[in-house]
Design brief:
Strand content of chain B: under 5%
Number of strands of chain B: 2
Largest interface: A-B, 91 and 90 residues
CATH superfamily of chain B: MetI-like
CATH topology of chain B: MetI-like fold
Strand content of chain A: under 5%
Number of helices of chain B: 14
Radius of gyration of chain A: 25 Å
Largest sheet of chain A: none
Strand order of the largest sheet of chain B: 1-2
Oligomer: heterodimer
Order of helices and strands of chain B: HHHHEEHHHHHHHHHH
Structural class of chain B: mainly alpha
Distance between the termini of chain B: 67 Å
Helix content of chain A: over 70%
CATH class of chain B: Mainly Alpha
Helix content of chain B: over 70%
Distance between the termini of chain A: 54 Å
Shape of chain A: flat
Order of helices and strands of chain A: HHHHHHHHHHHH
CATH class of the largest domain in chain A: Mainly Alpha
CATH architecture of chain B: Orthogonal Bundle
CATH architecture of the largest domain in chain A: Orthogonal Bundle
Radius of gyration of chain B: 27 Å
Chain lengths: 290, 324
């Protein structure tokens, strides 16, 4: 027979245990509430803005009074995002992939430590600081807001993501494959290009997709470089519209139609991000399982 | 027999051997691109330093970050209100986000059924991937009306007269506290993910020793795992803090954008990033632009400090666990 005090203490410990375990489950649930709320709200509000006009027309001035039906669409922002992010990707891809190759395929030395440190600092850098730099370098020099300045800012945000993923993916390639190629007489660079990179190709594409999704949703650097434009523009040396910029500007407007279009643009961005992240997650999961 | 000497080398071959069959060229190209990453960072520092020269010469760095005046019309620029707003809103975010985030880390690393672990981790990561402008919009249209009616107004009416940080009037609701709440939702996944990772690497024998002594599951977590992972969790919190400090859009849309220092958390304020983003496209003078650039430099240094501490702490945990 155990003394009653021991039993009491045991019971208390059991209660505390149960309480804290429920608390961990509860806080996980509570944290997921905003995610569900935000996604549900974006879908509910955004889908109402989606019609044919939304994807095929540019901005139309909102008429005050009765006839506020014709509100145009966001084609100019879709085209702008496509151009700005596309130009950024063309610049970021070679830098990111080659830096990843350097970090993964060549022996670690002081230079790789410095490069890795700089990648970390760039990853954590506030995006507005990058925007300010592009503003000084391009907007102040040319005296004009331009899509190119926005692309340059996005490059800085994309490069560290691509570098990090490329390095990790190249490290997953077994050394025996490299040794087999070298034993057949291939120089190291040929081995890298024809054996290692093809084996890690899907992983490298993953990193590029993640960088693309991050860049597409980035607003702050575009605010001080691309500025925004109500017309369909193709000139990368002039101001342009982009989806996140449009979402921000239309939110600040007092017109309900523009707010609705802001949600439509937000829904487009969220869908891009969800598709990218979930497909990347599925791809990496299959690799780990297989 | 007049066979040619197989070991005689042509000029082309000699050159290729000197270049190690192209390896040297490829190495140089890769190194060149890798050094471009370093160059990007150096360019950012150099350009913002150079661009802020006018503001530094006019106010001095110490004068700039201790002055509370921000008036583009009279040419008075002081960063203290923006720095105050940045630090206070980020601290609110950290206080609100850290406890649930650590609990999520505990749940995902230990208690979660294996089948649920991957989907739940994905959902936490998605929370981090949603563009910040969407958080800002949700804050403007959903959170602020709710917050004003059910949180800010009741608190301010009940205790606003006694406690100065809850003083009214609440007005539209934009202010430090609601910015802190939005930032908390945004940094929660960062802290949760790092906590999960550092808790996962706690050696099994630490847990088994506690279990063998008859500890309950919570006691194992509380006395064996959390102390072991403490440095790493603090590192995750610093990473989250760094993210909150540099966040622009969500703060810009809900904080009210007033360069003032008020005791009440319900009053509008501003953050460094929000002030730069809203004013840089339409500056009044060169000094105005230069002051905003100097503010960007200060913001960069603050986030760099937070992130350096974070990296050191997380790195120490993963290194020490690797050595065992």
């Amino acid at each position: 027979m155990r003394p009653a005090s021991t039993m009491r203490r045991y019971r208390r410990r059991t209660y505390i245990n149960r309480f804290m375990l429920v608390l961990t489950v509860g806080s996980t649930g509570v944290a997921l509430i905003p995610l569900v709320l935000i996604l549900a709200y974006v879908f509910q509000q955004g889908i109402g803005a989606w019609d044919v006009q939304f994807f095929t027309e540019s901005f139309r001035p909102v008429a005050l009074g009765e006839d506020t039906v014709q509100t145009g669409g966001v084609l100019h922002a879709i085209v702008g995002t496509f151009i700005i992010v596309g130009v950024a990707l063309l610049m970021a891809m070679p830098i990111g992939v080659m830096a990843g190759i350097y970090l993964a395929e060549y022996p670690a030395n002081r230079s790789s430590t410095i490069i890795r440190f700089c990648t970390d600092v760039l990853t954590a850098m506030p995006s507005i600081v990058v925007g300010v730099t592009a503003y000084i370098l391009i907007v102040q020099q040319t005296q004009r807001f331009s899509a190119l300045a926005g692309s340059v800012a996005l490059v800085v945000l994309m490069v560290p993501i691509i570098t990090r993923t490329t390095e990790e993916m190249l490290r997953l390639v077994p050394d025996s494959s490299r040794e087999a190629a070298i034993a057949l007489g291939a120089p190291k660079w040929w081995t890298t290009l024809t054996v290692v990179i093809p084996m890690a190709f899907s992983g490298i594409v993953t990193g590029i997709l993640l960088a693309l999704a991050r860049a597409a949703g980035e607003t702050a650097p575009l605010l001080v470089t691309v500025l925004g434009n109500n017309n369909l523009a193709y000139n990368i040396f002039g101001p342009m519209q982009a989806l996140p910029l449009l979402a921000y500007r239309y939110t600040e407007q007092p017109f309900a139609e523009m707010n609705e279009q802001a949600w439509g643009a937000a829904l487009l961005l969220v869908i891009i991000v969800l598709i990218t992240n979930i497909s990347v997650w599925l791809a990496t999961r299959r690799r780990q399982a297989g | 027999m007049a066979l040619t000497d197989p070991f005689a080398r042509s000029r082309g071959l000699r050159l290729r051997q000197r270049l190690q069959h192209g390896d040297l060229i490829f190495w140089l190209v890769a190194l060149g691109f890798a050094l471009l990453v370093v160059a990007l960072l150096l360019i950012i520092v150099a350009v913002t330093w150079d661009g802020s020269r006018e503001a530094r010469e006019t106010f001095g760095i110490v004068g700039f970050i201790t002055s509370t005046d921000w008036n583009p019309v009279t040419g008075e620029f002081g960063a203290l209100p923006a720095i105050y707003g940045t630090v206070v809103s980020s601290m609110i975010a950290l206080v609100l986000a850290a406890p649930p985030a650590i609990m999520i880390g505990v749940f995902l690393s230990d208690l979660c059924p294996a089948r649920l672990r991957a989907p739940l981790s994905l959902m936490v990561e998605l929370l981090a991937a949603i563009p910040s402008v969407v958080y800002g919009m949700w804050g403007v249209f959903v959170l602020i009306p709710f917050y004003r009616t059910f949180i800010a107004s009741p608190i301010s009416n009940a205790v606003g007269d006694q406690i100065p940080i809850f003083e009214g009037p609440v007005a539209v609701g934009r202010g430090l506290l609601v910015a802190g709440i939005i930032l908390a939702i945004m940094i929660l996944p960062t802290i949760a993910a790092v906590s999960r990772d550092v808790l996962t690497v706690v050696p099994t024998h630490q847990k088994e020793a506690m279990l063998a002594l008859g500890a309950t599951r919570w006691e194992v977590i509380r006395h064996a795992q959390l102390p072991y992972a403490r440095a790493g969790i603090v590192g995750g919190m610093m990473l989250g803090l760094g993210r909150a400090l540099g966040e622009t859009m969500a703060a810009l849309m809900v904080i009210g954008n007033m360069p003032r220092i008020e005791t009440s958390l319900f009053q509008p304020a501003t953050t460094a990033a929000a002030q730069i983003a809203s004013q840089l496209p339409t500056t009044e003078s060169d000094l105005h632009a230069s002051s905003l650039i100097l503010m960007a430099l200060v913001l960069f240094l603050i986030t760099l400090a937070a992130n350096s501490i974070a990296r050191l702490l997380v790195w120490n945990v993963s290194r020490s666990s690797g050595g065992r």
